[in-house]
Design a protein that fits this description.
Layout: E1 8-11, H1 17-28, E2 32-37, H2 41-53, E3 58-62, H3 68-82, E4 87-90, H4 105-133, E5 136-141, H5 145-148, H6 154-174, E6 179-186, H7 195-198, H8 201-209, H9 219-230, E7 241-244
Length: 252
């Protein structure tokens, strides 16, 4: 079993979905966990209680990743609470639809600020702490949309494509400081964010038909690979985009 005892992981958007599942996986590996949330305090509290029940330290910290000052406070409070940051999982994101000729500037800006600026802020601050330690792991969460595009979700795809380029750039930049930077790119995942299309029978049939493994991923299906990238098993992997999509996008 992966052993991360003594390590501290900060996960953004960890009150639900992939972030919450990752928090549980890291707790099972013995890591202390910071559960970042924005709106869903009760859900974040439940994740903290679950982590603690597994014998790991945990704290929930509210922060809007689209606001740089919030992210700075999130990192400062993590260091105050735990004394270090070993792993950062930049997971928080939003997904909205809109045809390009109907997409308004506000929706575009919100998506870029949460999905891309939020990841930038986390990487910027993680690098500052991890350079001092000369060790660390940053894991970003992109999407198949960032690899092949997604009709009627161009703003989302653009933000997720930017995450991939940012990840590759930082892998080269931060590698000499002992910092690994990798990306997980999920396909369809059964979370609250994608609940609406996954509950419509005609759409779910089409979605599953496009996945060679013939099922939609659970949040835990993504959390496992995130844990792997943070472990010593992946110590010589950096700049990688790990596709976790059941074979729906084969861009390896």
């Amino acid at each position: 079993m992966t052993n991360l005892k003594g390590k501290v992981v900060l996960i953004t958007g960890a009150s639900r979905g992939i972030g919450a599942a990752a928090a549980i996986r890291f707790a099972e590996a013995g890591a202390g966990v910071v559960v970042n949330y924005f709106r869903h305090e009760a859900d974040a509290t439940a994740v903290v209680e679950r982590v603690r029940s597994l014998g790991s330290r945990a704290v929930a910290i509210q922060a809007d990743v689209a606001r740089f000052d919030d992210v700075r406070e999130l990192f400062d409070r993590t260091v105050e609470e735990f004394g270090r940051i070993d792993v950062v999982v930049a997971n928080a994101g939003i997904w909205t639809g809109g045809a390009i000729d109907e997409l308004d500037e506000g929706t575009w800006q919100e998506t870029i600020e949460v999905n891309l600026k939020g990841v930038f802020a986390c990487c910027h601050l993680a690098a500052r702490y991890m350079k001092q330690q000369r060790a660390g792991s940053i894991i970003t969460v992109s999407s198949t949309a960032g690899q092949r595009g997604e009709a009627n979700h161009s703003h989302y795809a653009a933000s997720k494509g930017g995450i991939i380029s940012l990840t590759k750039s930082l892998a080269s930049e931060l590698g000499p400081f002992g910092i690994n930077v990798n990306c997980v790119a999920p396909g369809w995942v059964d979370t609250d964010m994608s609940a609406e299309p996954l509950r419509r029978s005609r759409e779910i049939e089409q979605i599953v038909a496009g996945i060679p493994l013939r099922r939609v991923a659970s949040a835990d299906d993504i959390a496992g690979p995130i844990l792997f990238l943070a472990s010593d098993l992946a110590r010589h992997i950096t700049g990688e985009v790990l596709n976790v999509n059941g074979g729906s996008v084969l861009c390896g």
